[in-house]
Amino acid sequence: MSTTQAVIDRVDKESESYLEELKEYLRIPSISTDPAFKSEVLRCAAFVMDQMRRAGLETRLLEQEDAYPMVYGEWTEAVGKPTILFYGHYDVQPPDPLELWDNPPFEPTVVGDELVARGATDDKGQSFAHLKAVAAILSETGTLPVNVKFIVEGEEESGGAAIEKFVREDKGTLLSADAVFVSDSAMYAPGQPSLVYGLKGLAYMELKVKGPSRDLHSGSFGGAVTNPLNALASIVGSLRDAATGRIAIPGFYDDVVMIEDWERKEFAALDFDEESYRKEIGVPCVFGEEGYSTLERVWARPTCDVNGIFGGYSGQGAKTVLPSWGGAKVSMRLVPNQDPLKIEQLFRDHVIDIAPPGVEVEVQSHHGAAAVLLETEGPIVDAAMSAMEDVWKRPVRVREGGSIPIVSTFAEVLNVPILLLGFGLSDDRLHSPNEKFNISNFYGGIKAVVHFIDRLGSLSTDT
Ligand code: BES
Ligand code: MN
Ligand code: MN
Questions:
Q1: Low-confidence stretches of the chain (pLDDT beneath 70)
Q2: Whether residue 190 is found in the same domain as residue 216
Q3: pLDDT tens, 354-399?
């Protein structure tokens, strides 16, 4: 029997205990965006570090001022062999609205083949699969055919500023590697994995429109002054052409990299049922920028969406009030070559330019991220594709509408293949109530990584 088969058998044998440990991980409410959970986020870092140590890695916490630590682990005894850097994040999104969960978000529950908990797929379950693969190989054979490094951060869901700074300063010293492996995305369909070769970037803005110094009687003063919420609505309404779906901020499309012909062909060839997509999300029709298909819009065209709008009276019944202020959160998902800082500036200029007289507009920016396009060919990509095929099928090439901020920095600084191979499913409800991860995908993910390590070990270092 080959060693790899022996490792795979071990994964099957240990599957129950892997699942129990994953549940333990999921019980820690490591919500990085909410300062009230600070001690839990730190406890979670300690848990990951302990897991790495027990797997046989040399570990350390990478700490930075005012930031949650990154957990680092390595095993680098395979002299002359390639090095894989595994990336993941141990922080999770807030679980609200709590009342929509069937079970408490931090009490992982098995429902059929699904493990339901906040962070199950994003990203604890997926990145834990990397670690369990290495643990299984090391405990079965006492060695690895390649070198491995792990970096698991605690701020991905809040913008990833700390790891960004670290990777730039490190310049590939501690993190030098021949490939980066990331599992923080979904398969295209059950049983059909995907290689994500494009992620979107992000520019997240907040607007505050200020009018009168206090709320006013809307009869006594209405008609005499600009209502800040009316003004806010007209500003927000001017961001996008309602008929064509085009974003109306001057200069917004200037640097956009056009979707290529081969991509349009590949996307069109994917098995995509728009009708069931529409039904699943509960909308009367799909809508987006004219001239593009749904997949093209989501994966390869920039967007501008209001995430929240607030101010005035929204309680029960009617209150005749002219509010003193209004606010909105607006995010733009960006595509390759759009510079988040430049887009922020265009947004500011546009909003100030079109603001009606009688109000003062404040524009603030939250975290941003650059979009990225990755290599889809070469011996390492090939080895990874084959490893996924060993468990499921050969991955299809897709892009993604979501962002993983550090990926563009990895691409720029490390300049090696970055493999975005996820084990999640598109209905895993990440960031939503009842987030889940398929348990068989958890085990499949572990096995795929075992195969990848085996396959990469057989390639020579100078590939
Ligand atoms: N794992 C997601 C990104 C993702 C989502 C990739 C779906 C592939 C498919 C990641 O944890 C995430 O939520 N990213 C944020 C980044 C933001 C907070 C800067 C996002 O995309 O909103
Ligand atoms: Mn994630
Ligand atoms: Mn997320």
A1: 1, 460-463
A2: no
A3: 999 999 999 999 989 999 999 999 999 999 999 999 999 999 999 9
Whether the Cβ atoms of residue 170 and residue 416 lie closer than 8 Å to each other: no
Is the pTM here over 0.85, yes or no?
A: yes
| CATH value at residue 344 | 3.30.70.360
Best residue among 332, 426, 430 to mutate for probing ligand 1's pocket (most ligand atoms within 8 Å of CB) is: 430
Residues with CB under 6 A from ligand 1: 122-123, 156-157, 159, 184-186, 202, 367, 369, 400, 402-405
Question: Measured from the CA of 403, which atom of ligand 1 is nearest?
Answer: 21
Tokens encoding 115: 């493990």
Residue 262 lies in a domain: no
Q: Report how many domains make up the chain.
A: 2
3-class secondary structure, 93: coil
**Is residue 313 assigned to a domain?**
yes
With contact defined as beta carbons under 8 Å apart, do 228 and 211 qualify?
A: yes
CB atoms within 10 A of CB 79: 7
CA–CA separation, 183 and 234 (whole Å) = 41
- 309 lies in which domain range? 201-256+302-369
114 and 23, same domain (yes or no): yes
